[in-house]
Design a protein that fits this description.
The structure is a homodimer of 483-residue chains. Chain A is of the alpha/beta class. Chain A is 43% helix and 12% strand. In chain A, the strands form four sheets. Chain A has a seven-stranded mixed sheet with strand order 2-8-7-6-5-3-4, with helices on both faces. Chain A has a three-stranded antiparallel sheet with strand order 10-14-13, with helices on one face. Chain A has a two-stranded parallel sheet with strand order 1-12. In chain A, helix 7 packs across helix 8. Chain A is globular, with a radius of gyration of 23 Å. At the A-B interface, helix 1, helix 3, helix 4, helix 7 and helix 8 of A face helix 1, helix 3, helix 4, helix 7 and helix 8 of B. Chains A, B: It holds the Pfam family Aminotran_1_2. Chains A, B: It catalyses: L-alanine + 2-oxoglutarate = pyruvate + L-glutamate.
Chain lengths: 483, 483
């Protein structure tokens, strides 16, 4: 009588449809090779797997910012604040910061569920940080603390997508969290293309065309996702471009979903980060003009605290009844983790001139960001020196997205191996060098073009070897398949 | 031209449908009263709000287990392990445990995203803990670490529910995470009733009847949720009852979703916790016989670390292709928070006889559990001494779910106020005493019966005052509305 309870063909088809290349086929193969290296050392042409597939700085040796970790340790074990030895183990401002944070938590209880939006005192600190960053006021009631940016994105997709006729505008290439989340919630991804030839710029005329096209197919486009600085593309949007986007969303009644998790990662002097809220407010647009969500995360920036799963979304321009629905969905999961909440408040309110930790904090921060800038430039130059590869400037974020003009023979070999050509290239690269990158097809790309996404995160002393291994691989790949 | 981007009437109707009473109307009203107490002290007939609505022990003064917090602090700031002062501030076994945990994390990086299922070394520790608990082997590959139990439940609902014809069996009364998650994923909640007159027992004959009834309506029942110890009902299932449930799920091809988050919370000598996996294995049922998910959380037990958002699900009996889909969905969110992952490994592998912390750990644990048992008994006796109230024994979990036979006049007054009668009662209780409970209608109850859920968590010294305030309120309520 026993029926098979669950099988692939009776699962939710939305789950089957969803894809997530950042941890997809190439990465699973890399994990198998890593096990092989452990069980059979010397059996592969390299000694270690270099994970350039994911923005995970501390997995590649980046050290956490000392001040942040001091505060977290004290909040985890508040008894330390009553002990004399603590003064010699922790910086004075970490002690006072932890004391203040604990005082802002009802009952000093870091082990209690908080308010569903997060601890009010921490949201106050974040709102103050946003206000200082933008020069326009932010409100703690608009902040929802989340376990990283992903749950916030899912929550918005869940709210907006009713059925397959609801569309979400996404850049192509895009970060696959968006395509995965839209697929899981059963909506339609409406693409707009970033223009590689102008440094991954965004043309509002293209947006309009795509919008009309989607509407003519009966798609109700609800929101526009913009990732700035870009992932996987690394560009930093120009202010004028941002104004055009804001105006477009206002005029077309689209929710602007602004992924701003790389706001601290800018590597060029002629660009700076502007939040979309700052842009909108500086245009005189207020709550009634634009519905806007800004996503931030503790996983990125110079801190790179991916494992802590902290982040927030700032929501503005939603009516009170809609906010109640957002609050209700947040409350079904009770709250985000308190360690991540505390860390989100710290990154938005870091040590300042005059604080005991300031000098060491600043040295750590600048050291990381300057090194990332040097690594980005070295990899970018290396890619641009290879046959058939062109790579735009990494102005920000943590990635390069070079285009690889693959020879016809390579494309045929990929076809024979039942792989996308860029996946075929990435798998050969992995098997030859141990370097893990993500094929461009995981992010979307103009049909007929092929890319890889490579993080700039390996430690600086490893970059020369990565470049020489990549170069040797690429040359032999081209020698084998050159038309 | 600007259209309103988003309004309640164009949101996802599944979001609108979802309800979550544990943080619903009564709690929102309590938060308003709490603000009033701050801004206008003395303006209400009580001095503080007593949150008995949610299983959140540390918010009511329960202290964290010292050993667990020592290990977390050391893992957050590993530099401490290199300092001499640390030996006088932390217990020796916390130092060695943190050292071992860090050694099991690639690169000692507590700030890195982990494997999507969680850090392998921590999953090994959890699997060893399950094996020791059950006497049957557990496998680290079956463990998915999660940010509390809720994300695991959502993941399973997402996997199993294709449309409104897919049903999930849930106990009534149930914990509203289940009804909320089923609503959000667009499935059908298929109820089975727990029998209040037999201490919230579960009749398999009733299950069969409900299953046939659902099938006759075209519902494809995919899974059965069982909460043991029970929430909101507090019962601990008898072994024989568990065997019947296992057999029923096997025979009917249902996934058994076992909410076992209260496995450490048992307050009576004649009952003990048995995991459903242990029951199934002891019946000779293996992977091919039963598809089973066990949910565990660091939020409950004697530790009550709700704010850390740690937990896991152990999945067994799923085919490899289905497991790949579960892994894919987990990887879209990258990983659960590492602090919660570490804590989940600690609660499943606590200090043992001979460890430096054992005596103090045991004293803290026993103190909490014994006090909870006394509080449960005191509240249960108090409820049973009131006119029209009957309350089953709290054998486990953190709640009492007394039935209140409301007079006809009270039901009419509720109707006039457009409230469910139990919500009307709970709101009057709140406004009179500051005590926050959840109306039974938020959990489901036999039609025409009315209950409240009240946690046993206020600190022990406050229990006598709570009882006397509750008694005074109830007597005056009954005096006002008695038929």
């Amino acid at each position: 009588m026993a029926a098979p309870a669950v099988a692939v063909d009776n699962l939710n088809p939305k789950v089957l449809k969803c894809e997530y290349a950042v941890r997809g086929e190439v990465v699973m193969h890399a994990q198998r090779l890593q096990q092989q290296l452990q069980t059979q050392p010397g059996s592969l042409p390299f000694d270690e797997i270099l994970y350039c597939n994911i923005g995970n700085p501390q997995s590649l040796g980046q050290q956490p910012i000392t001040f942040f970790r001091e505060v977290l340790a004290l909040c985890d074990h508040p008894c330390l604040l009553e002990r004399e030895e603590t003064k010699s183990l922790f910086s004075a401002d970490a002690i006072s910061r932890a004391t203040n944070i604990l005082a802002s938590i009802p009952g000093r209880a870091t082990g209690a569920y908080s308010h569903s939006q997060g601890i009010k005192g921490l949201r106050d600190a974040i709102a103050a940080g946003i206000t200082a960053r933008d020069g326009f006021p932010a409100n703690a009631d608009d902040i929802f603390l989340t376990d990283g940016a992903s749950p916030g994105v899912h929550m918005m997709m869940q709210l907006l997508i009713r059925n397959e006729k609801d569309g979400i505008f996404c850049p192509i290439p895009q970060y696959p969290l968006y395509s995965a989340s839209i697929a899981l919630h059963g909506g339609a991804l409406v693409p707009y293309y970033l223009d590689e030839s102008t440094g991954w710029g965004l043309e509002v005329s293209d947006l309009k065309k795509q919008l009309e096209d989607a509407r003519s197919k009966g798609i109700d486009v609800r929101a526009l996702v913009v990732i700035n600085p870009g992932n996987p593309t690394g560009q930093v949007l120009a202010e004028e471009n941002q104004r055009d986007i804001v105006k477009f969303c206002k005029n077309e009644g689209l929710v602007l979903l602004a992924d701003e998790v790389y706001q601290e990662n800018i590597y060029v002097d002629n660009k700076k980060f502007n939040s979309f809220k700052k842009i909108a407010r500086s245009m005189g647009y207020n709550e009634e003009d634009l519905t806007l969500v800004s996503f931030q995360s503790v996983s990125k920036g110079y801190y790179g605290e991916c494992g802590k799963r902290g982040g927030y979304m700032e929501i503005t321009g939603f009516s009170a009844p809609v906010r109640e629905q957002i609050y209700k969905v947040a409350s079904v999961n009770l709250c985000s983790n308190i360690t991540g909440q505390i860390l989100a408040s710290l990154v938005m309110n870091a040590p300042k001139v005059g604080d005991a930790s300031y000098a060491s904090y600043k040295a750590e921060k600048d050291g990381i960001l300057q090194s990332l800038a040097r690594r980005a430039k070295a990899l970018e130059d290396a890619f641009n020196n290879l046959e058939g590869i062109t790579c735009n400037k990494a102005e920000g974020a943590m990635y390069l997205f070079p285009q690889i003009r693959l020879p016809r023979k390579a494309i045929e070999a990929a076809k024979a191996a039942k792989k996308a050509p860029d996946a075929f290239y990435a798998l050969r690269l992995l098997e030859t060098t141990g370097i893990v990158v993500v094929p461009g097809s995981g992010f979307g790309q103009v049909p007929g073009t092929w890319h890889i996404r490579c993080t700039i995160l390996p430690q600086e002393e490893k970059i020369p070897a990565i470049i020489s291994h990549f170069k040797a691989f690429h040359e032999s790949f081209m020698a084998k398949y050159r038309d």
